[in-house]
Amino acid sequence: MSLYASRRRSNLTAMALCLLATTIGIVWLFLILFSLLLNGLPHLTFEVFTEMTPPPGETGGGLLNPIFGTLMMTVLGVGIGAPIGILAGTYLAEYGRYSKTTPTIRFINDILLSAPSIIIGLFIYGIVVVPMKNFSALAGSLALAVIVIPVVVRTTEDMLLLVPNTLREAASAMGLPRSHVVWHVAYRAARTGILTGVLLGVARIAGETAPLLFTAFSNNFWSASLMKPIASLPTTINSFINTPDANMKQLAWTGALIVTLAVLALNIVARILGGTKKQS
Amino acid sequence: MTHATPSLDHDGRLSAARSKILARMALGDRSFHLVTRLCAYGVFILLAGIVVSLIMGAWPAIQTFGLEFLVTRRWAPQLDEPILGALAPIYGTLLTSFIAMLIAVPFGLGVAIFLTELCPIPLRRPIRVAVELLAGIPSIIYGMWGFFVLGPFLAQYVEPGIVWAVQDIPVLNIIFGAEMISNISLFNASLVLAIMILPFITAIAVDVFSTVPPVLKESAYGIGCTTWEVVTNVVIPFTRVGLVGGVMLALGRALGETMAVTFIIGNSFKIDGSIFSPGTTISAAIASEFAESADLHRSALMYLGLLLFILTFFVLAAARLMLMRLEKRAGA
């Protein structure tokens, strides 16, 4: 009987520890959100979205130019990265499914998916910033595109592989060429899944800082030019946090709150989209 | 029947219009195939491009310092003839990742066990989503939070106690010793890293645990095993390869993480053996010095980047190979 009791005891201990780990894990999420709200929310005013970043020593000001910069580079990054990623994912799932190079491509893509983003920044610095001789919004967008591509390749391939082969066979039997089968049957069936992948890609790059530090750099003034340095929310947070100026520090917290809420919202939307797909 | 196929002429052959359409379709088909293939091979080009551009950027530093770069402790870019060595950032990178894994792996596995074996089913999805959302928070937010919230808390309430408790114990008083406790230290950076990679480990462990065939677990429960015994004797042995793969994937993340670490590690190039003193990692050194660097200094930072890429490449490659082995077994 004592053996039974000791087994029971160790089981209870282990399970209690697992419960504890889960509680702590979830408490972190709320702690982080709580301190963001505490520090960022009181100053989340309308002006934050309409005014430019302030110079040190002044009060007021907003985050208009970094918000615009982040939006512009994210849209461009996804605009460049998502089509390439979708097409590459299409090759892996449709044309090259049984090709010998496919596993290698998939393997390398998976590695790029988790490669440190600062390395991507160095790469774009080397091939775009150095030849152009200055930091630019274009370089930032390209760096973000390089980060988006593996995410989209992976989800597109996974989603296309879920499309039942009978659908493709039925379309082929009606005489449709392969590209039409892909466009009109496979893409249509996997549409929400692919969209989820693109949204996850957006969520991933919207808060990226490291690859922008030496590609888009930063800019305290309004700029919409592709060829000039441009501010973005994460890099602005990064530079404002380290200043002694209280007003700028405050704006950094507000910016952090905006980025986090935006990224969480994107993740939740992507999950809802992906979730409805699974249930139906 | 006679009027149903107007595109066939009287002899039943394809009309000119129809064969033109077919030719166009065939062309479209071939070009679409080609375009998708080019994009897929673009992945190779990307990898090759990263390696080549890093090597090119690092070349002056490779020529100057060679492999001695790896074991040189000094980092003095301001000298007329700069002496630059990667030992301190390598030490910081490995140490912070190691401590982070030490904390995050047991926690992550605990959460995964809770989610797969213990948690009431209606709660499983919300908890999983919450943990996954934790993974989506941008890393700069973790860095900020670590610097302003976690760091001061640890420096005020936790670390002085530990330093005091071990001050007379040899070895430990070096590891946990500190002349001055600030909210910047290797340990704080490791803790923030641990919080960051916890969701990755959990997500992968839950996926890997769900590959265990229910029959195996049910038979263990059937002969009277407790939940803990099922986990240690059935689930973990069955998924060992995948778990190691998942842990290494998280390690790959931890090694290359930049923004979460940069604020709180202090970017100081010394090695004094204490985890409560400031240090640096490869990525933190690049992030904080690259913009102000020039010439050989910049090239040395590129060299650091190359080292980081090689290191993470091998860790991630090993991780993927192990996960693939598990997938193959689960599929068979």
- Global shape of chain A: globular
Total helices of chain A: the number is 12
Q: What share of the residues of chain B lie within helices?
A: over 70%
Strand segment tally of chain A: 0
Number of strands of chain B: 2
Give, in order, the helices and strands of chain A: HHHHHHHHHHHH
Query: C-alpha Rg of chain B, in Å?
Result: 28 Å
- Look at the structure and give the CATH class of the largest domain in chain A: Mainly Alpha
Ends distance of chain B = 50 Å
Helical proportion of chain A?
A: over 70%
How large a portion of the residues of chain A is in β-strands, by DSSP E? under 5%
How many separate helices of chain B?
A: 12
What would the CATH topology of the largest domain in chain A be? MetI-like fold
Element-level helix/strand string of chain B: HEEHHHHHHHHHHH
Average pLDDT number of chain A: 89
Summarize the structure.
The complex is a heterodimer of chains A (280) and B (332). Chain A is mainly alpha-helical and 280 residues long.
